[in-house]
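An instance noted here:
***
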Amino acid sequence: MPHFERHVVDRIGWLRAAVLGANDGIVSTASLIAGVAAASAGRSEILLAGVAGLVAGAMSMAAGEYVSVSSQSDSERSDLAREKRELAETPEFELEELTNIYVGRGVEPALARQVAMQMTAKDALAAHARDELGISHTARARPIQAAAASAASFAAGAALPLGVAAAAPLAWLGWASPAASLAFLALLGVWSARMSGAEPWKPTARVVFWGAVAMAITAAAGALFGAVV
């Protein structure tokens, strides 16, 4: 019976974008709320700033992720097109190149040649994409998937401190939303560590520390200038 394993690397196409988006959503919105609250603004101004930050941030994350990953996808397509052309024009050279790659990884030359010939016979372009260019199916650039994951995760992350700001008494807003956001960041750190198969303590401490720094600086700026920043 075939044995199938699902590895955490299979999630790399969306996990990075989702974690980055959620982290940005929590930190930027909580920082914005802290800065506006420190400037002695009312609840309506705070919520308006938070909603505007949520919408603008989600759109910015989606656009930025799409452009960035599209550039990676363009590079991959360009490399694959060149490799396909070289396979058609100089197949013997490409076979030798693949053989040398396997030899460099510790395979005996005769066996490496045999493996290269079999891989070439099955799917030469796939073999060169994986072993020469380092392009695999699981790590291929997917712009739309990355953009959607970034926008959705940013909006979900931003909604958390925004919800706290809407529910908490006005006198508590200056600390309630940032404090809750640090707890949300800790949960995000634990979740992302579990999804990536890593120990949770170091990534959780890292995300909470830098989130606290961002919120503290923004709150200080709001208090210093006494205006929405």
